[in-house]
Design goal:
mainly alpha; Growth Hormone, Chain: A; globular
Length: about 400
């Protein structure tokens, strides 16, 4: 399917050169939309509970609801991106997240807070996460998509190193409600800047655009595409638990909050270790084998998290899981670009994100219930470990055909 022409102002390069201003703007959207609540939640959880006396399962449930809204909204966000381009998507993200997360910061009732924070998180995720920014950067660089994705995800790796310590610093000075408002403001500013800078590249439009049913059918077709979709869902559970509970688990293991947040921030910085050499690694072993290596790192690192009672082990967790998650995020986008039609890539990656977030939402919800029932947050880690192991087994089973003929390594 032919790709529609983008905005005449700074469109997709034809010579393989990167549009660095657009990548930088998309990188800032990625950093801020992930950081403002998705990453900062774990830092603000204890201060919020201590101040309000609300039940942890309610608040972790609001995070799970936000993941579910990201999942549901990602399909809409991907379709909107295909039809109208990134500017409309980013404008809607700024508006809805302000109403939701901004309103939650003023709420004095746990249910109102849960509803508002879930809505704000859902808007930032469905309209500003990688399925949107990766698709946009691929369309801007049709001759060099892997290099463009690698450049974008290097920006994205800075999200938790910036936002985890920033959330701690702000909470110490302004308390958690003001911190939420300030973090939200950074995301809105990044979205507005991207509206100005990023060319409004869209997919082909008209009668030839595939329906959501056909997009879902393609993503769940027998063989490697089905295995990939199932693995994406399982990895969604693993990463949602690790990212939302990494700081609380380290604190439960005995680290002070500041040290735990520093280690978690280092984990985000260590994502660069999984991204900087990725082009060379993919060139030698392919995207799917590289994904096995990334998942192995996530499994090993999650085990280290249980024993993070001292800073050395916590930093080891940061390095290993950081490399694993850092490599996995661009690998998912690269593999999707290989497996699926680029003219409907926004809808397809939106569908993948929906699966990841909807299934992944069960992770923090289960983690909150486990933490309440056991009184020890370290027991939430096996949820992440077993989910990542299951993803490896599913991808390995695809070698022998997952419900159909296997797909050759690309």
């Amino acid at each position: 399917m032919a790709r529609a022409e983008g905005d005449s102002r700074g469109g997709a390069p034809n010579d393989g050169a990167l549009n660095h201003p657009a990548i930088a703007a998309l990188g800032m959207v990625t950093i801020c939309c992930y950081g403002a609540w998705y990453y900062s939640f774990g830092v603000l959880l204890d201060p919020l509970l201590a101040d309000t006396g609300w039940r942890e399962s309610w608040i972790s449930g609001s995070f799970a609801a936000g993941l579910a809204l990201i999942g549901i909204g990602s399909v809409f966000g991907g379709r909107l991106l295909d039809r109208l381009g990134p500017r409309a998507v980013f404008a809607l993200a700024a508006l809805v997240s302000t109403l939701g997360l901004g309103g939650a910061s003023f709420s004095r009732h746990p249910l109102l807070f849960a509803a508002g924070s879930a809505l704000g998180m859902g808007a930032l995720g469905a309209l500003g996460f990688y399925h949107v920014t990766m698709t946009t950067v691929v369309r801007l660089h049709p001759d060099n998509p892997q290099r463009a994705i690698a450049a974008l995800t290097i920006w994205g790796a800075l999200s938790s190193p910036i936002y985890l310590p920033l959330a701690v610093w702000m909470n110490d000075r302004f308390e958690w409600r003001t911190t939420i408002r300030l973090l939200l403001a950074t995301a809105v500013l990044a979205l507005v800047a991207a509206i100005i800078v990023v060319p409004n590249e869209t997919a082909a439009i008209g009668a030839g655009r595939p329906s959501l049913r056909s997009v879902a059918a393609a993503a769940t077709a027998p063989g490697e595409t089905r295995a990939f979709t199932i693995a994406v869902a399982l990895i969604g559970v693993a990463t949602s638990v690790l990212l939302s509970y990494q700081v609380p688990v380290m604190v439960a293991a005995g680290l002070p909050l500041a040290a735990a947040s520093t280690a978690a921030g280092a984990r985000g910085f260590c994502q660069l270790g999984g991204r900087l050499p990725l082009g060379i690694i993919v060139g030698r072993i392919g995207t799917r084998r590289a994904m096995f290596a990334a998942l192995g790192a996530i499994i090993v690192g999650s085990i280290l998290l249980v024993f993070s009672s001292n800073l050395v082990v916590a930093l080891a967790f940061a390095v290993v899981v950081g490399i694993g998650i850092g490599a996995y995020s661009p690998l998912q986008g690269m593999r999707a670009a290989e497996l699926y039609d680029r003219s409907s890539l926004g809808a397809t990656m939106g569908f993948q994100s929906a699966i990841s977030q909807l299934v992944g939402a069960t992770g923090p919800l289960a983690a909150g219930l486990v933490a309440e029932s056991t009184g020890d947050r370290r027991w939430v880690v096996p949820i992440a470990t077993t989910s990542a192991i299951a993803a490896v087994l599913v991808l390995q089973y695809a070698d022998r055909g997952f419900g159909g003929a296997s797909t050759a390594e690309r």
